[in-house]
Amino acid sequence: MEALLRKKCYLCANMDYRIIAPERVVGDIDLPASKSISNRALIINALAGGGSFISNVANCDDTDAMVSALSEDAADYVNIGAAGTAMRFLTAYFAVQGNRSVLLDGSERMRHRPIGVLVNALRSCGACIEYECEEGFPPLRITGGVLSSHEITVSGNVSSQYISALLMIAPLIDGMERVKLTDNVISRPYIDMTLSLMAQFGVKTHWDGNDVVIEKSTGYKKVDFTVENDWTAASYWFQIQSLLCESQITLCGLFADSSQGDSAVARLFEPFGVRCLRIGNDLGLCSDKAALHDFVEMNLIENPDLAQTIVVTACLLERPFHITGLQTLKIKETDRIEALRSQLLKLGYVITVGEDLSLSWDGTKCDVDECIMIETFEDHRMAMAFAPAAIKFPGIIIKNAEVVSKSYPDYWNHLRNAGFKLEEVK
User: Fold this and answer.
1) Residues 129, 122, 262, 308, CA torsion sign
2) Distances (CA, A) of 166 to 48, 117, 195
3) Domain spans of the chain?
4) Is the dihedral of CA 351, 356, 358, 362 positive or negative?
5) Do 167 and 195 contact (CB within 8 A), yes or no?
């Protein structure tokens, strides 16, 4: 199968795209590297004192923010923009960095994303962290020092990034033996990813019920490491395959033994009629209409980053659904629950939000906007999940298309190379 051309995507700020879809897509997609793995590997390498060679590091805003922050050894002000992962991981990282004092800041949206749970857990170990503005939110004044505690207790039903941040610095906390997770543990695959990377850098752990036990070690080792490509980015191509069933799409660089929880996308898209065939580290997609479900019931508690792709796909395929496990969506780049509801309404789909923040659709429809303009709310996944809607709604406009640079800068070029027509709207 002939590979699609691969070129770097450079976008101007506040660019809107009108999109026309092809009848089918045939080609290979060179997916971006995983930013989740990249950011963890970069933090662990820094905690090990640096020196490891980390190859195939993600080329996106979130990872660029991490690389920049870790390279500024003497900076007393670090601004990570909209990079939520960087904010959580660096809060823990700077807390164990000697007597260095850093003001850790972010975008206006970041200043409204809560971080109190992580700060309280770090303070319980002796961390010196102060809020510069609003209690419980960035920016943070962090004065690094020696932390000590036998165990940390943190709720398991908040962002897994808090837990991963604590786990990665656990080997540097004097006497640390256990991270205790109370309540139901959500997004556990992301915690398992962290533990897997810690093990590859020499720190072993194991689960004991809901607790993670840190086994005695001499700390992190210097290890050369290759980042695999991103399964979450793959989800948009599963979506396209489900909507253009004559397509033949091959996704490159997806490891069979992936530590990414979103590798579950291969299973989660089976009810949407998508099958896949593994060829080494590549994945060939094909359609199976007979596998389509009339009603889709899913719990995405372990895969919240797939929610937008799955909800939009179900609507476009006219499949009623009930999707649960979406509690963390309200504190992402935007309130993704409300963002999905409001933007799907423009396409004529009347989505119901449950008291448990579940999303459901019973087939109820309303009038479609005459000119469909999808607001992305500074959320990369809104742009990428709604772009394939052009298959059913030719000429749909995605506003502020540049937001994809947060995780998948080449997304629009990959769509162009796949046959989509993108016209800049002035």
Assistant:
1) negative
2) 15, 11, 11
3) 16-32+229-425, 35-225
4) negative
5) yes
Task: At 204, list the tokens.
Answer: 């072993």
d(CA 38, CA 227): 6
pLDDT tens across 236-293, in order? Answer: 999 999 999 999 999 999 988 898 999 999 999 999 999 999 989 999 999 998 999 9
β-bridge pairing 321-324 and 359-361? antiparallel
CA atoms of 5 and 237, how far apart (whole Å): 16
CATH topology of domain 16-32+229-425: UDP-n-acetylglucosamine1-carboxyvinyl-transferase; Chain (3.65.10)
Question: Which residues are annotated as catalytic?
Answer: 305
Q: What is the pTM of this model?
A: 0.87
Question: Between 3.65.10.10, 3.40.720.10, 3.20.20.190, 1.10.10.10, what CATH number should domain 35-225 receive?
Answer: 3.65.10.10
DSSP3 helix / strand / coil % (the chain, rounded to 5): 35, 20, 40
- Asked if 177 and 152 touch (Cβ cutoff 8 Å), the reply is no
CA-nearest of 117, 9, 87, 391 to 237 is: 391
- Residues whose CB falls within 8 Å of the CB of residue 74, separated by 6 or more in sequence, listed in order: none
353 vs 407: CA distance, rounded Å? 27
Torsion-angle region of 169 (φ positive above 0: left; ψ -120 to 50: alpha; else: beta) = alpha
- Rounded CA gap, 397 and 415, in Å? 14
